[in-house]
Specification:
heterotrimer, A alpha/beta (130), B alpha/beta (102), C alpha/beta (135), B: 102 residues, alpha/beta, Hypothetical Protein Ychn, Chain: A, 5-stranded parallel beta sheet, 5 strands, globular, C: 135 residues, two-stranded antiparallel sheet, 4 helices, 7 strands
Chain lengths: 130, 102, 135
Amino acid sequence: MKFGIMVSAGPYTHQASDTAYHFTEAALKNGHEIVRVFFYHDGVNNGTSLGVPPQDDRNITTRWSALAEKYDLDMVLCVAAAQRRGLLDEDEAKRAGKDVSNMAAGFNISGLGQLIDAGIQADRLLVFGD
Amino acid sequence: MTTLHIINKSPFEKNSLDTCLRLAKQGSAILLIEDGIYAAQKNTAVGDKLAAAAATHSLYALAPDLDARGIGKDEIIDGISLVDYDGFVQLTTQTSGVQSWL
Amino acid sequence: MAVIKKFLYVNRKAPHGSIFALESLEVVLIGAAFDQEVALAFIDDGVYQLMRNQDTSGIGTKNFSATYKALGDYDISKIYVEKESLDLRGLSKDNLMPLTWEDEDDDWAEKDSIQVVSSTELAEIIDNQDVIFNF
């Protein structure tokens, strides 16, 4: 079965990103396909490269990056939500005249059309949020 | 096949349980996750609602979330089945759509 | 043959106190370009998003309430508002913005987009969807 995953909450503040991660991992281990993991609202904060969580706790961002690399996942941060909250890849940063970018490995910036597309392509679309 | 309804908030924090019970068609499945699992505990003010729902819906709770919150398997209402993340995935394949009551 | 699915956008939060109402609308507007079968549902505090006379000038935030009136231009004709949610809040359809769409199959007659539905009716609608977004 094909799944689309929507993550609507940021890392740590709510459990949503953790639950989404464990669901996604279980789906992949059980042989299912993930069309896309789409991060919206504060969920875009999962994609920051600047997070320095304590060593004795899970690193939510790098955990997603590792899963994406292992399974070649398409992980998308919504461009509008990302711009609002200051998550920028190199291109976006240049365009906005900012001197830093902060997108973690495995995350890509794209439009809301990718969320709709995930809904169309997937057999099931799940929303994890606050 | 019918819908899988997911509730992730405590019934004492938000109205999501009430709204879900109002809008989950009879015969559909309801899964409690994250803080939503508190609704599964025995002897709460919402126990009667859950017990009634068990008669018309298939009720589930995500076991890792119960464990995290110190609620034992013997402390949950009759009629609620426990699943792990694999079981969660399986539930979504057995139902036709997913509705998350955030 | 392009896939056409039933998309339902579920809105349960009030406007302005959080960003969910606005960012939900942004998805709806982008989604309109994908030619799917679209409906919106307003439940619980979501019904407040449709109230008339919203004026955000005093709080300094974006007043996006006029965007709901444009939904008809995006071929969105099914806007379900749960009666029980209105009743609990002492509201009726008269408190809501008059949202309309033009039916090209009926000589472009202007029709109401908002349907106030019972919980039972809405439960049936929800159960028939392919893709459900929650904001």
